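Title: Comparing notes on inverse folding

I've been comparing how different people in this forum approach sequence design from structure. To keep things fair, I'm posting one structure and asking everyone to reply with a full sequence. Here's the target:
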């Protein structure tokens, strides 16, 4: 279980969407912070393409947790990012850097992720990219 999650995050940091997709079940349920649930690998791939256009992020200080049966896992991390292109409904992107804590929760079936839910503090992110101090 933690091997799959570690591979997923390694691929995220490498910008390797194909390997991330390989970690997911075909019917993945992707619960996004402040967004709607996306279902299926195609929707996940589209989300990744959008994120890669607007943001460059690296996760550090990753700590993985898992249940004994391997069906659920969680991760805590720091998001280190650069806001590259303006995302709809958000402040204008000017290459602002941000750093904030985040977390993800997973359900797994065998070595495939069937659900990923990601959380971070949107108000903190908004303050940082808008020139406020945020919680760094």
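Reply #1:
Here's my take.
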């Amino acid at each position: 279980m933690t091997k799959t999650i570690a591979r997923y995050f390694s691929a995220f940091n490498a910008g390797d969407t194909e390997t991330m997709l390989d970690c997911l079940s075909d019917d993945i349920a992707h619960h996004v912070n402040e967004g709607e649930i996306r279902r299926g690998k195609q929707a996940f791939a589209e989300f990744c393409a959008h994120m890669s256009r607007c943001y460059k992020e690296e996760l550090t200080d990753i700590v993985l947790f898992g249940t004994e049966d391997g069906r659920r896992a969680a991760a805590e991390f720091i998001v280190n990012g650069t806001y590259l292109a303006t995302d709809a409904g958000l402040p204008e992107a000017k290459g602002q850097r941000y750093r904030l804590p985040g977390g993800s929760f997973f359900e797994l079936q065998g070595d495939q992720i069937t659900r990923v839910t990601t959380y971070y503090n949107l108000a903190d992110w908004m303050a940082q990219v808008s020139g406020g101090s945020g919680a760094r």
